[in-house]
Amino acid sequence: MDKQSLFGQIQKKSSFLCVGLDTDLSKIPPHLLNEEDPIFSFNKQIIDHTAEFAVAYKPNIAFYEAMGAKGWESLQKTLDYIPDDIFTIADAKRGDIGNTSSLYAKAFFEKMNFDSITVAPYMGRDSVGPFLEFDGKWVILLALTSNEGSQDFQVLNTEGDKPLFQQVIEKSQQWGHEGNMMYVVGATRGEKIKEVRALAPDHFFLVPGVGAQGGSLEEVAKYGMNDSCGLLVNSSRGIIYASSGEDFGQRAGEEAAKLQREMARLLEKY
Amino acid sequence: MDKQSLFGQIQKKSSFLCVGLDTDLSKIPPHLLNEEDPIFSFNKQIIDHTAEFAVAYKPNIAFYEAMGAKGWESLQKTLDYIPDDIFTIADAKRGDIGNTSSLYAKAFFEKMNFDSITVAPYMGRDSVGPFLEFDGKWVILLALTSNEGSQDFQVLNTEGDKPLFQQVIEKSQQWGHEGNMMYVVGATRGEKIKEVRALAPDHFFLVPGVGAQGGSLEEVAKYGMNDSCGLLVNSSRGIIYASSGEDFGQRAGEEAAKLQREMARLLEKY
């Protein structure tokens, strides 16, 4: 999916919501456990109830990988079930030497047909480059994450008086462009988003920190939005685990709708 | 496997060789393609012929993941086939927020029973910590890799006039110890290994850069060895693809034996 189509979906749905499919067998409603593929059954209902409010789905690959071969089957079925006009993100945080990154790229882009994948920057250009060689596919590069450990290395001051995440954003703009690269930007403080937005005015940001990880949607929009919206804001647990009963799908839809209404307001305002 | 047992194996075999199982369907001998599980058939013969010369096996997870559910089955069968006294490394380069890293740790340490996993440091302490909570299991943290892109961020000068990889090594020693943490140290230049050895005198290094990636075994031993050897030197393509004929297993064994003899000499010398 290209940038224009993504922005088109955002306008059509008045939403920049990404639903995180961090589906965990120990957290899904117990009545699903008798089904042949409980993970897919869960995801299917979540998708049925949230698709009108979301512009992206982001399965965190760890949740599927933890279940072995069966998990990969559930993931593929989920991906095939997501409507074609919704952007898909493999939250995999991969990154390896060139020929290995090529394999990961083929696995996620060709074999599974994801639109994008999250990538870790530590190994540099030749670890990221192979993901950029696929037409219509995207790299979402970790820049400033929302976890506590982001303070260990990402904000270290480096050459030119620049924090490490700034080096990542500046250098990577020589590798890709706003049509094939996004950045993960944690939403813990509005002023930080403003700082990152100044470094990459035209790129989309994937913002993981709204909801369970804390972070204000208003601040994210105020400081992060650009002319093409430029934001995909993720919510996982707050939506998919809104209820542990048989009404989980419906309740997920209600939570997604609530966020979508707020996003519609913010798209008007900023 | 604990540090003492690993060193015991190194002494017993006079070897610090790690064989990289980067098994690629497009590179294995064509006569194997008719087998039910060509990847496992290949790995089985490689293991049969190299086990007496190697102290570790390192499947690069990308090669298996690229084949979907079937690849994970081949990986599990391979892992089950590796003799118990040989150290196993999941070359996965994972790293995510805490609860997700926990899932990856369970997948690789409990479900698949690897001894260790390679982890990327960018997300900091709470992304690495979950891997350190398993008795007898190891984190192998990316410090200084051997690819060209290692120059993009890993060697950037940071606070205290320290390159980023030094920050990674220093900080991570507060998270783990030489009994549960190793470092990936690229073998392109001896002086660099010397520099890293000074930062982590007692830790094992996994050295990926000997063989196809260039790098001298003599230099690695001279500058990197410590009282417990402290080195696992990996060779992948030079061993497993030594021949593309029916003699591939035997030829792999010969290449492994050659490296082992050189390592025996170096273990005597340094």
From TrEMBL, chains A, B:
Gene3D superfamilies xref list: Aldolase class I
Keywords of the record: Decarboxylase, Lyase, Pyrimidine biosynthesis
Reaction equation(s) it catalyzes: orotidine 5'-phosphate + H(+) = UMP + CO2
Residue intervals of the Orotidine 5'-phosphate decarboxylase domain: 16-252
Entry keyword annotation includes Lyase: yes
Origin superkingdom: Bacteria
Name listed for the protein in its UniProt record: Orotidine-5'-phosphate decarboxylase
